[in-house]
Write a structure and sequence with these properties.
It contains eight helices and seven strands. It is elongated and about 145 Å long. The mean pLDDT is 79. The strands form three sheets. Strands 3-5-4 form a three-stranded antiparallel beta sheet, with no helix packed on it. The protein has a two-stranded antiparallel ribbon with strand order 1-2. It has a two-stranded antiparallel ribbon with strand order 6-7. By secondary structure, the protein is mainly alpha-helical. The longest helix is centred in the first third of the chain and has 45 residues. Among the domains are: 45 residues, no CATH class; 158 residues, no CATH class. 53% of the residues lie in helices and 7% in strands.
């Protein structure tokens, strides 16, 4: 029977409305059935997955723990892992300490010898640094004493200029042939010109306790660096003052290169070409030697730090837990070979 035959007594309009109501109820029932089927299928899948997870889970390895482990872990919590690690340390560490104390450690003996050698070198380096500081003040006293000498006459100046009138020499920087009379001046100007093209900088200023006049340490706001040239030789931030007519050279005269005679060069500094910039070069020599001594002392301190760190880590907890020396003969305490001993 069709839908219209079920309602023969109703009007056609009423029959259509009744048919719509009936179809809506049927659609609702179908939707409810589909939802129930989906929920049942989800529950079945969840039960299967839970059964698989329960089968794959293991018991926690913590001492006295009966709970299952976390995914990707051997413990149910961090506390169980810490408890097991503490129990292992208490069980293994005393035995390892006894083994460590029974046999002598060759590396420990070598470390002590290295520390003794480093301490001796540090003492020698500090003594040398004090000597260089004394030499620094002695040089300043010599320079001051030389400036107090009287200036010589013009006849002696003419004699010194005639001796070097025809001698030629090549510049070590530019290779140009120059007169011996002005060789040192020319070479110094060439050095300043080429040295000014390069830069030596650091982000931090120099802080050395008790040291004076070492690095330039002038801050450059463009590069944000501190100049690390020697303060005496820096061509960019320290320039030599012009010598006056009455200023004496004052260079100490020597015999056989190193023997100081006690006399000083009394030529005017503006005219003397033999001892050009002798104060700056002597100061730079002393400062460079002081910097080398300080660098040597810093290297020795780093070596001492490395040796002490190795000695402390050698008998540490991690080293004793991970490494073990097997002593096969209980009567032999020294496990070194004949070549090592």
């Amino acid at each position: 029977m069709s839908d219209t035959e079920k309602f023969p007594l109703l009007d056609p309009a009423m029959q259509k409305a009744a048919v719509k109501v009936k179809t809506k109820k049927l659609n609702k029932k179908k939707k409810k059935k589909k939802k129930k089927q989906k929920l049942m299928s989800k529950r079945k899948h969840q039960e299967k997955a839970d059964a698989k997870d329960l089968a794959s889970l293991r018991q926690c390895l913590g001492p006295g723990c009966v709970y299952p482990t976390r995914p990707g872990s051997k413990y149910c919590s961090d506390d169980c892992g810490m408890k097991l690690a503490a129990d292992r340390i208490y069980a293994i560490l005393p035995q390892r300490i006894q083994q460590w104390q029974k046999s002598p450690c060759i590396a420990e003996e070598r470390g002590k010898k290295m520390l003794e050698r480093i301490h001796q070198e540090q003492q020698d380096t500090r003594t040398r640094l004090k000597d260089m500081e004394c030499h620094f003040y002695e040089l300043e006293a010599i320079i001051l004493r030389g400036k107090q000498q009287p200036v010589c006459k013009d006849e002696e100046i003419n004699k010194s200029n005639r001796n070097n009138a025809n001698l030629q020499i090549f510049c070590v920087s530019c290779g140009q042939s120059i007169n011996m009379h002005v060789a040192l001046r020319h070479m110094e100007h060439c050095f300043v010109k080429y040295e000014g093209k390069s830069s030596f900088g650091s982000m931090y200023p120099t802080c050395i306790e008790g040291a004076t006049r070492l690095f330039c340490d002038v801050y450059n706001p463009k590069s944000k660096r501190y100049c690390k040239r020697l303060q005496v030789l820096c061509p960019e931030h320290s320039r030599d003052p012009k010598a006056s007519d009455d200023e004496v050279c004052g260079c100490p005269l020597v015999h056989n290169v190193f023997e100081f005679t006690g006399n000083f060069c009394r030529l005017p500094k503006r005219v003397c070409n033999l001892h050009y910039c002798w104060e700056k070069l002597r100061r730079a020599e002393v400062d460079l030697e002081r910097i080398r001594t300080l660098n040597k002392l810093e290297e020795l301190l780093e070596q001492e730090h490395k040796v002490r760190t190795a000695m402390t880590n050698r008998a540490g907890l991690l080293a004793l837990m991970l490494h073990q020396t097997v002593q096969h003969d209980p009567l032999t305490t020294d496990l070194r070979s004949k070549a090592d001993s």
